[in-house]
Amino acid sequence: MASPDIDLTVYPDECDAYGHLNQASFIALFERARWETLARGPGMDFFTRQGAWPAVRKSVVEYHAPAFPGDVIRFSQVLVHLGRTSFTLRQTARRLRDDALIATAELVFVCVDAQGRPVPVPEALPQVMADKPLAGNLRRVAVNGVNLAVDVRGQGPAVLFIHGYPLDHSIWDYPLAHLEGWLRIAPDLRGMGQSDAPDLGYSMATYAEDLLALLDTLGVERVVLCGLSMGGYVAFEMLRRAHERVSGMVLMDTRSEADTLEGRKARDAAAALAREGGASAIADSMLPKMLAPSAATENPALAERVRKMMEATPVSGILGALGALRDRPDSTQDLPLLTRTPTLVVVGEQDQITPKDRAQAMATAIPGARLAVVPGAGHLTPMERPEATTALLADFLTGLGLHS
Ligand code: MLT
Predict the structure, then answer these.
(1) Rounded Cα–Cα distance for residues 85 and 117 (Å)
(2) pTM of the model
(3) CB 346 within 8 A of CB 396
(4) Percent of all residues in the chain with a pLDDT value above 70, rounded to a whole number
(5) Given this model, what pLDDT does residue 130 score?
(6) Is 290 touching ligand 1 by the criterion CB < 6 Å?
């Protein structure tokens, strides 16, 4: 059973002197939507029947736009993490009239008994609060205690597409749709897209272990890795752990070096910004560097798509990724050892986050690697120049001679 969206109307008595829905009423509406979900499903006494009361332990609410009397707000609720005694719910509030994102809330609940002692989450909760069915080719795969949303298409030798931060698998939409003759696997990393976002510390090792377990679950032994930016850092970690499973590698808009001291401080500052201002503050700070400088005027639709993707990232996933980015190991010393991993290095000519000279240095250090610079692209080459990027990928993959 999928949890239904709940539509609630804003009344004048819930608004402040300027006519905006006030904060206290907003929190009450979020709560009303949760109770409505139970009322329309298993009944409002769902938790008390099981002797488990969901006590809020933490809540992060992000306000994106004001709402006014008469607005109908559509609330959707998704269970983003299920632990033994705790669970995390993400709620999204959009205005029905124009689909504007009004606010998001992320709440961690601990189930307690009448004495306040933690008790197991009711078994039926995932059915009650089930996520809506995933769109398109996405399916849910459980690995290492989390559910990853994964786009799996086609048949043939496998290619694993690993996105960057704070993004999701859809940056690969074009190559996923067009690289026929290959088994294309594109997960949302934990904490991003529609995957679970547990409120725990993450590391590059966590992501790499998730993806190796994903390959095991899908029955894929060998794979070509294609990682963009943070996805490249994850690819390096996968190589360190299981180089025998990697038949080739594409490093796109990425670098091999660890963060400098200054870079590490910037990660901590970004974490403070995320705690304070939520995903939208992160999106505001990153968007200008994500795309080629001309994109804002020449391709506003793309800029808007990237902003929405970043804004949809749960704060717990942003904080987890920032820790993983800050503490990632340096992979530069591994590059000369990649003698048996055919590698293509791709970079957008105008990449401001992982610039061309970093790509050039990697291509020089990896034996036999080739460098391709994509004109007109910034940091998100597969979205900005999808056809040129996909042609490069197709050419490289064919050259690996993996089709018997
Ligand atoms: C990414 O695009 O994955 C990140 O911006 C990489 C980074 O910040 O190092």
Answers:
(1) 10
(2) 0.78
(3) no
(4) 99
(5) 66
(6) no
pLDDT in tens, 207-265: 999 999 999 999 999 999 999 999 999 999 999 999 999 999 999 999 999 999 999 99
Nearest to 109 by CA among 126, 85, 92: 85
166-193 CB burial, b ≥16 within 10 A, e <16: bbbbbbbbbbbeebeebbbbbbbbbbbb
As a residue count, the chain comes to 404
Q: Is 273 helix (H, G, I), strand (E, B) or coil?
A: helix
Q: What torsion do the CA atoms of 350, 356, 359, 365 make, to the nearest 10 degrees?
A: 170
For ligand 1, the distance from its centroid to the CA atom of residue 356, given in whole angstroms, is 14
Specify the residue with its C-alpha closest to ligand 1, atom 5: 165
Alpha helices in 201-327 (DSSP H): 204-218, 230-242, 261-290, 295-298, 300-311, 315-326
325 pocket-lining for ligand 1 (C-beta < 6 Å): yes
Tell me the two tokens of residue 40.
Answer: 């329309």
Strand, helix or coil for residue 384: helix
Q: Is the C-beta atom of 164 inside 6 A of ligand 1?
A: yes
Nearest-angstrom CA–CA distance, 354 and 4: 42
Nearest ligand 1 atom to the CA of 229 is: 3
Question: 270: CA distance to ligand 1 center in Å?
Answer: 12
Angle at 184 between CA 178 and CA 187, to 5 degrees: 120
Q: What is the tens place of the pLDDT at every residue in 154-189?
A: 999 999 999 999 999 999 999 999 999 999 999 999
Residue listed under structure tokens 């993806």: 211
Reported as a single tens digit per residue, the pLDDT across 121-140 is 998 888 887 655 677 788 88
Strand partners for 263: none
The first and second tokens of residue 120, run together, are 């197991």
Determine if residue 358 is left, alpha or beta; phi over 0 gives left, psi from -120 to 50 gives alpha, anything else beta. alpha
